[in-house]
Amino acid sequence: MFASISSLQPHLLSLLRIVSSLVLFSYGTQKILHFPAAERVPDVGSLSWSAGLLELVLGFLVLIGFQTRAAAFVLSGLMAFAYFIGHASKSLYPAQNGGVAAILFCFVFLYIVAAGAGPFSVDALTKRKQATA
Prior knowledge:
Low-confidence stretches: none
Largest sheet: none
Structural class: mainly alpha
Oligomer: single chain
Order of helices and strands: HHHHHHH
Shape: globular
Number of domains: 1
Number of strands: 0
């Protein structure tokens, strides 16, 4: 049973990459493009706005699977900073300090750095085209 499930691993990696980056990308669209509308948006040039710009641009790159490892590496670091700057000082426990999403994003993107983009990505398409050329 697990052997047949293991054959899905590359496809599930792509799905993990797509879903997690789409969620992070939506934070960037809210902070930078004000979509969907939010009660409070960060001031242009602020730390939160800069994080939103990275979430928007690099989140999109990871979403489509282009330069995935580099973009995911920066996003993993961004989420680590977000956790320690915005959450860790409130409490030791993520469930109490509101940092659950930041810590999960940090480690999901760190995994993507190591695992790559998966088969449903621009990176994989580029690699296939280079192999046939």
